[in-house]
Every structure is written in structure tokens, then in C-alpha cells.
Design brief:
Layout lengths: L2 H21 L5 E6 L6 H8 L7 H5 L1 H4 L11 E8 L13 E2 L8 H20 L6 E4 L7 H7 L4 E2 L5 E2 L7 E8 L25 H5 L17 H7 L9 H4 L2 E3 L3 H4 L26 H5 L3 H8 L8 H16 L5 H7 L5 H23 L1 H6 L3 H13 L1
Parallel strand pairs: 3-8
Antiparallel strand pairs: 1-2, 2-7, 4-7, 5-6
Helix pairs in contact: 13-15, 14-15, 15-17
């Protein structure tokens, strides 16, 4: 070993000790990257193409996302952390509403967030820095968690635009800590080059499986066509052309993750930072359509689903009902066509026509249409009648 290696050895030993302490907090991955500014023209191209839909904060914070020093002046290191959501679950019941895997745990902001705060305390104690010299994020600020995880060697970016780990497949929830502490960087994955899909080979399963054709190019996700965006982030009317493709997905979509061959290497996490919420997988559609505000608050408290609010979940449930072919749901949907919220009424109208056809739909919804005063809902009545 030369002098340079001798000088580096204590720093590497310190890094490995810090990694072990952070892993002990419950994280399944802890890796380090140099906090240099990112040159990522793909981000600007993605924004210029409008693929962010109405998530305007992505445009507003684009420049800050590219430079950790704009968040913490003097930042030296980004710590990339991951928590796996993979577990050996039984196959989902295709006859029931489908939920994104992460929705089946308590809200990760409420569980991973406090662990990141503890990680900052450990970091300050270990490095002699102040807690204010570090800032943690878990999907809560202008941070490119996926890019930092890639640079730190947590995984590579697949054709589904997700970070794919050799150890965890597609199933890592990512967090990051930007810090002024200087910690030697880990090596990124180099095999196969450095671009999107570097270890995907010729595989296109994720692109071909997407129910709404949300990938205009490998590694490029158009949120406007993405089921996860439409059923979670979009708070208004979901485009009619996309509704059939939503199928039975009532909150999010894991299709492009589920089909990835790299998942065969996934292993269950320790679930130290995830709290399972029982009951989502067994909820039937009729129960969802009959949810009251009190029942929604009780069942979905401290889960990611609470962000949707009841009106958003009912909207999604109406689409799933319309795709179900189950005519026994028509009475419940007719009742929702008079719901106080316009987005619920409009999607209920669409679902009634899908299940009952034009003649019965017009008959069953005549009173609701006569009483309707919202232009968007009236358009749903007109369009649904034309399409039925």
C-alpha cells in the first residue's frame, strides 16, 4: 500500500463504522456520494416536454435539485438511504381493488422521517459537526434522491425510470441527507455503462406492460399518462381515455415494478421503519364505495392514502367499479352521482354508463342529471352517454 492508501484507510474505516451505525437505525441501504453539482440535461428535457403534468414544484425547484450546495452551502456529502418494502406476500386477489405496495404500510413520512432525524444526530456526534450542518429528506424537498442513490451505488436507473437495486429489486423507498461532513464516496455501479437501463439488457417488460403507455422512451415517464400520478397526485378529473387502463388499481400502480426480472433477487427488509396496515388487501369495492368520512378517517389514518382525502378515493373507486363489470355496484354508483363533491359525481356517472349501458344509464341518472349544476359533471353525463 502506498502513502495515499495509508492516508485514506482511517477515513474508510470511519465511513464503514458510520454506515454500520446508520444501518442499525433500520435502514436497509446506506451509501455515500460526493455532493458535487449534477449535470443532468435529461431533467430539463423532461420538464420542457411537460412530463411533470401539473406538479409545478418540480419546475420551480429544478435548479436547486441539481446542486446540494444551494440547499446547504458548503455541502460535501450526500448520504443515500433506502428502506425496502419487499415482502413475500401472497398473490393479490385480482377481483379486489389493488393498492400500491407502499400504501400497505403506515405513511413513510411518519416512520422513515423520524429515523432520518436520528441519523442526523448520529452523524453530528460521529463527525463533530452541528445538527444544522445536515438536512434530511424523504420525498419532502428539492432533492434528486434517485440520482444520489445511483451515484452512491445503491442501484442503477432502469427502463421504468425507477432505481433498481441488485439486492432489493425495485422496492426501495429512498431518503437522503445532505451534509457538510466530508465522508469518502462509495463507487457507483459501473457494469454496462452509466446510462438508463445499464443492466436491463434487451428487456422491455416494464415498458410493454404499462397499461396506459406512460413511457414515451426508455427511462422517461410521462406523468400525464401514469396511473400513479393520476390516482394520487391528480386531484381533479382523470382523463376519460385513461380510465379503462386503470383497471382495478385504486391507489397507485406497481405494474412496471412488478414485472422487472431484477425482483427475483429482492429480499425482505427488516421492517424496522415500516409499520404494516392490515386490511387493505381484503377490502372489497362495495365497501370502498360506501365509505363515510368517519370510516375513511379511521381506516386510513397515518397511511399514504389519507393524502387523497375521501373524495379522491371515491373517485378512484368509481373508476375501478366501472372497469369491474360488476352490475351489482350500479345502485351504489347511482347514489354517488348525487355526492356533494363534483369529482365523485362525475366519475360515478362514467361508471354507471360503463356498467349499465346507455339506455339504463340515462334512466338511472335522469334525476341526477336534472339536478346537476357543475359544468364538468354535465360534460361527464354527455360524454358517457355518447360512449356507452
Amino acid at each position: 500500500m502506498g502513502p495515499q492508501a495509508d492516508n485514506l484507510a482511517p477515513a474508510l474505516e470511519f465511513r464503514e463504522g458510520l454506515r454500520a451505525r446508520l444501518l442499525a437505525l433500520g435502514f436497509d441501504e446506506v451509501r455515500f456520494a460526493e455532493a458535487s453539482a449534477v449535470l443532468l440535461p435529461a431533467l430539463r428535457s423532461w420538464l420542457d416536454a411537460g412530463h411533470q403534468a401539473d406538479m409545478a414544484w418540480m419546475e420551480r425547484t429544478a435548479e436547486r435539485r441539481l446542486d446540494p450546495g444551494s440547499i446547504i452551502p458548503g455541502a460535501r456529502t450526500v448520504i443515500a438511504l433506502g428502506v425496502t418494502t419487499w415482502s413475500e406476500d401472497p398473490p393479490a386477489d385480482a377481483a379486489r381493488p389493488a393498492w400500491a405496495r407502499y400504501a400497505q404500510f403506515e405513511d413513510y413520512h411518519d416512520t422513515i422521517g423520524p429515523a432520518l432525524d436520528r441519523a442526523v444526530e448520529v452523524l453530528a456526534e460521529a463527525t463533530g459537526t452541528l445538527p444544522t450542518d445536515s438536512r434530511p429528506y424523504v420525498d419532502t424537498g428539492p432533492v434528486l434522491e434517485r440520482e444520489w442513490a445511483r451515484r452512491a451505488g445503491v442501484g442503477f436507473v432502469g427502463r421504468n425510470a425507477m432505481l433498481i437495486s441488485r439486492a432489493h429489486g425495485n422496492w426501495l423507498m429512498l431518503g437522503a441527507i445532505i451534509t457538510r461532513a466530508e465522508i469518502p464516496a462509495d463507487e457507483p455501479i459501473k457494469a454496462g455503462g452509466s446510462g438508463v437501463g445499464q443492466l436491463c439488457g434487451s428487456c422491455r417488460r416494464c415498458i410493454d406492460a404499462c397499461p396506459t403507455d406512460a413511457f414515451p422512451a426508455p427511462g422517461v415517464l410521462d406523468a400525464r399518462r401514469c396511473i400513479s400520478y393520476q390516482t394520487i397526485e391528480n386531484r381533479g378529473f382523470i382523463p376519460r381515455a385513461l380510465r379503462p387502463g386503470i383497471g382495478n388499481r385504486v391507489f397507485g400502480c406497481d405494474t412496471c415494478l412488478d414485472v422487472c426480472p431484477w425482483n427475483r433477487f429482492a429480499r425482505s427488509g427488516r421492517e424496522m421503519l415500516l409499520v404494516p396496515k392490515a386490511g387493505l388487501r381484503v377490502m372489497d369495492l362495495a365497501s370502498l364505495l360506501e365509505l363515510t368520512p368517519a370510516a375513511f378517517a379511521a381506516r386510513f389514518r397515518r397511511t399514504p392514502v389519507k393524502r387523497l382525502k375521501l373524495r379522491g378515493l371515491l373517485r378512484n373507486a368509481c373508476i375501478v367499479a366501472g372497469n369491474s363489470g360488476d352490475r351489482s355496484l350500479v345502485d351504489r354508483l347511482v347514489a354517488l352521482a348525487s355526492h356533494p363533491e363534483p369529482i365523485v359525481r362525475g366519475h360515478a356517472v362514467w361508471a354507471v354508463y360503463r356498467l349499465a349501458g346507455r339506455a339504463e344509464g340515462e334512466h338511472r341518472l335522469a334525476a341526477a342529471r336534472k339536478a346537476e349544476g357543475d359544468a364538468s359533471v354535465l360534460e361527464e353525463h354527455r360524454a358517457a352517454g355518447d360512449l356507452a
